[in-house]
Amino acid sequence: MARLVTTAGSASANSYCSISEAEDYFIDRLHKSDWSGASGSEKQAGLIWATRLLDEICDWHGIKVTDAQALRWPRNYVTDPDGYLLESDEIPVFLKRATAEFAMYLIAEDRTLETNRGLMGFKSIKVDVISLTIDKAKAKKLMPPSVWTMVRPYAAYKGTGQRTTVRV
């Protein structure tokens, strides 16, 4: 298994959050048994996987600090919801928390499986006299709503056609 590297801006970084930072996040969170019951290697893999998926799903505001960094954070020209510039030499707290939260969901189940997002939540399908309808609103999303709430002020979903603007 790959070693967890959380150094901001590193060419070998593979996670936005360390296990220690995730443990701190989960201290005050209810319903965390999937995280608490996981082994150290599962937690590590979950954090690495969550980081990768966040970078694949999110069209982050601002621009990468350097071309050499492995991950898409740290970034320049990103402001928080109150209009203050985020530090461009560190991973922001919101992203560490979102990574930990997403990792817990990924440890609990493989949210990347098509069966989790496609055919779950049938509303209706009709075969002769039998009828079922898919309710896409009830299908699981790849990114849990709790994670999206954390990152939404700093990103747009990739592929939505929305352009991300740099706010300075």
Please describe what this structure looks like.
The protein has 168 residues and is mainly α. 35% of the residues lie in helices and 8% in strands. The chain has a domain at 19-113 and 142-157. β4 (126-127) and β5 (130-131) form a beta hairpin. α1 crosses α4 (93-108) and α4 (93-108) packs antiparallel against α6 (145-151). The chain is globular and about 60 Å long. The N and C termini lie far apart (40 Å). Residues 163-168 have low confidence and may be disordered.
Order of strands across the biggest sheet? 1-6
Poorly predicted runs = 163-168
Radius of gyration: 18 Å
Helix content: 25-40%
Helix and strand composition category: mainly alpha
N- to C-terminal distance: 40 Å
The average pLDDT value, as a whole number, equals 86
Count of DSSP-assigned helices: 6
Strand percentage lies at: 5-15%
Number of strands: 6
Overall morphology: globular
Reported for the largest beta sheet, the result is: 2 strands, antiparallel
The H/E string reads HHHEEEHHEEHE
Features:
globular; two-stranded antiparallel ribbon; 168 residues; 6 helices; single chain; two-stranded antiparallel sheet; disordered C terminus; mainly alpha
Summed up, what is this model?
With about 170 residues, this protein is mainly alpha-helical. It is built from six helices and six strands; from the N terminus they run H-H-H-E-E-E-H-H-E-E-H-E. Helix 1 packs across helix 4 (about 95-110) and helix 3 (about 40-55) packs across helix 4.
Topology:
Layout: H1 19-27, H2 33-36, H3 40-57, E1 58-60, E2 63-64, E3 75-76, H4 93-108, H5 114-117, E4 126-127, E5 130-131, H6 145-151, E6 155-157
Helix pairs in contact: 1-4, 3-4, 4-6
